[in-house]
Amino acid sequence: MNTSIFFRKAAPLAFLAGLGLTACQPDLENDVKPSSGSVDFSKYIAVGNSLTAGFSDGGLYLSGQQQSYPAILAQQLKTVGGGEFVQPLFNAPNQENGSGYLRLAGFTPTGSPITASVSTNLALRQGAAPGRPLYTKYTDPINNLGVPGIRLSDIETPGYGSMLGNPYFERITPDNQPLQTYLERVTASKPTFFTNWLGNNDVLGFATAGGAASFLTPTADFEDKNSKLINALTADGAKGVVATIPDVTNIPFFTTVGPVFRATLEAAQVPAVVVTTGGFSATPGAPPARKVIPVNTIRNANGSSGNQLFTLTASPYLALFGMPNNGRAWRDVYKQAQPALPAFVTLELFLQLQGIDTVQAFGASAAHPIPSTLVLDDVEQGLVRTATTAFNKAIKDKAAEKGLGVFDANAFFSRVAARGIVTNGVNNTAAFISGNLFSLDGVHPTPRGYAIVANEMIQVINSTYGAKVPTVNANDYRGVDFP
Amino acid sequence: MKFKSLLLAGSALLTGTAASAGGYQVTLAGQKNNGMGGVGVGLSLDQAAMFYNPGALAMVKDRGIQLGVNATLARNAFVAEGSNQQRELRNSITTPLNFYAGFGPAEGKFRAGIAVYTPFGSKLQYADGWEGRTSLTDIDLKSIFVQPTVSYAISDKLSVGAGLVVLAYGAVNLQRDVPLPDGFGHVELDGKADTKLGFNAGIFFKPSEKLSLGINYRSKIDAVVKDGDVTFTGIPATFSSRFEATKFGATLPLVATTSVGIGIMPTENLTIGFDVNLAQWSKYRTLRFDFDKQVNGSTVSESRREYQDALTFRLGGQYKLTSGLTLRAGGSYDESPVKDGFVTPETPDNDRLSGTLGASYAFGKFGVDLSAQYVSIKKRTQTQQELLNNGTTDRIAGTYKTNIVIPGIGLNYTF
């Protein structure tokens, strides 16, 4: 074959094909150019509690902080003029484990998770009183004002940042202003853009204690302080997004243990269990009220039946159900309560005040009931729900008054609890450990969960302010870390 | 023999890509046709009639053999919903081939021949770590059809023909990342299709020197993979008990197409063709994999496809400039079989618009055919809400755009 003719003929076509190829690569980047809309993102301040701090797995530690939703959000805001975002990281050498946290150590033969505490490389400071840690100070200016444990009701409390207050707030409070309140700190932050997700602990502390401790913030107090906080944040015309308080009864802390307990009791044909309700008694002759919970009223796995909730922390005690001569549950209740009790209240006296006889089978009778701290019963849930609804109304009303975006975290987490959420083809649910969204404490999200929260807030920013802030691929952030 | 060795050498590369004609169908069966927008059902150009319309083979003046090869160069851009990060394919080239040998008495009414072509195929390699990694990272579908064909001219105006279509070789390789709580593993499914039979039949009618008409039907063949290999990698020991499968089975429909074509020859040197194809993609409802053991708790994986039948319109022509040189041009419009909210990374499909150019040079009994196509697959966006509504959240929301350039060359020898 005459190859020279072939090549002479082919060359122009090959050239054309080459030209076509250069022009061939499609480009979508113009379609997805980020824009800031009507917002100046140059100084973003995040206000909130543990959720905002990046608390996860029962602790605040470096990698959790680095994957907090404000950190993820700030990273995305950089595409639309966002500035540096400083967090009070536990970044001193060998202090990366911060407060300490839970890790997954393995599973029992029946598939129950085994957790272990990480207690090395903590960021503890000398001079702490027993039971009240002090963490390595971080007093540089910061953008993430998330303080684990803070309630909205705490924001005007002088000394909340002192050594007798909240150790996480103490840590970031300037040494020369130990009495600065959280509200004052927020007021001084002068953001151009903010997020505010505060108020969860105003219901959560009461709920996770099974209604036996802490308290629900009065609605009027909540409204007043929420209003002051938002006024402070918007004083210089800053724009922002506020988040509502999720219904805490949807979180794995309350939905994981009960269904297993119910199934075990049903298999053993146990008709009912006995619990105490409310706080513990300090008055002789007036033990806390007992409540009989029929087994079929314990919430089941998919929530289709039953409404009595057991806490995640109840798990080791519920395994003792029916055992006589086993005082472990009440002994531990006493240990937890002891710091707040008068010194003369011994274990024996404490049990007597509560009317407990640990010789009896645990959980099966009024003489040896399951402690209230492990149960959030239907009545307590009603109180929590009423408070949550009132608080969320206050949050939304104030946001509407100021024209702020609202991330309805309550609606969002209810949807997630009912149907899960798919992120780029990956299924995530509200299930403990396997669901990817909630960390080992059953309350706080995993990095995956926080990334999804950041994306939800971005959508609110975009729709409220006509911005085009890009979201992250949530699948690049982990769920629960496996051993 | 020269052509045989060429064919054998090339067979390792015999693949198509999602180049033309929607879904994973490829229509690059004849190099002259490729330059004319893919028309051919109503024409009797050369031995490639065995593919386009076996009925027209008896009307092809010459007997001969011909071999064509194309290089499909696909370029794709993807942006996930909400993201501003553009992902591009790890670029790969596939080289669909076609081979025809036609025989018969010089003056007789019979023609017979054998055709080898690759009507279905796809090869895409997505960027490392892209957002849709858990639905697909790589796909390589290959099929080779061999078609013994006979054609008979009932009169000098009417001829019929048919071929036995043998799915001689089919291979599928699918890879994706496996989502784990704290990272990703990877799974590769690799299998060969069973040999299957179908048919390709057509009628060709040429009432005058200036007009010809054709109709063609190619039957559906199910590519059935049994005992394909499942290979998991990067799964930590903690999770390995959930990923036990080693074998899989799956069925992919290679759908039936019905085509009608018309040829117009206003002058001796000018030929214009117009084809309409209907591909019965509605047979493709779900993609189901059956595993021998569980994969994350299930031995079955099903994914909705719900394709719809799709039409393709083709228009093209050729002009014989000199006794040796013929020039061609054409174009096609190809409806996507993929409905909104059902787009998958295997076939990031949408309606396609193609433009083609071609030229042939004949010297004696030898001829060279050159062709070039530019295929623009329309930009397509699907939202997470659409995926939720359709129950198709196993794939990814976002915007795809693909362009393909396909240069091709064919050699022919007539006798």
Helices of chain B, by number, come to 5
- The CATH class designation of the largest domain in chain A is Alpha Beta
CATH architecture of chain B: Beta Barrel
Beta strand count of chain A: 13
CATH architecture of the largest domain in chain A: 3-Layer(aba) Sandwich
The fraction of residues assigned to DSSP E strands of chain A is 5-15%
- Our count of domains of chain B comes out at 1
Tell the overall outline of chain A.
Answer: globular
Structure write-up:
The complex is a heterodimer of chains A (483) and B (415). With 483 residues, chain A is an alpha/beta fold. Chain A folds into 2 domains: 44-251 and 379-476, SGNH hydrolase (Rossmann fold); 253-377, no CATH class. Chain A contains 16 helices and 13 strands. A 5-stranded parallel sheet of chain A has the order 4-1-5-6-11, with helices on both faces. In chain A, strands 2-3 form a two-stranded antiparallel sheet. A two-stranded antiparallel ribbon of chain A has the order 7-8. In chain A, helix 4 (69-77) packs across helix 16 (447-465), helix 6 packs parallel to helix 8 and helix 8 runs parallel beside helix 14. Chain B is mainly beta and 415 residues long. Chain B contains 5 helices and 23 strands. At the A-B interface, helix 1 and helix 16 of A face strand 2, strand 21, strand 22, helix 5 and strand 23 of B.
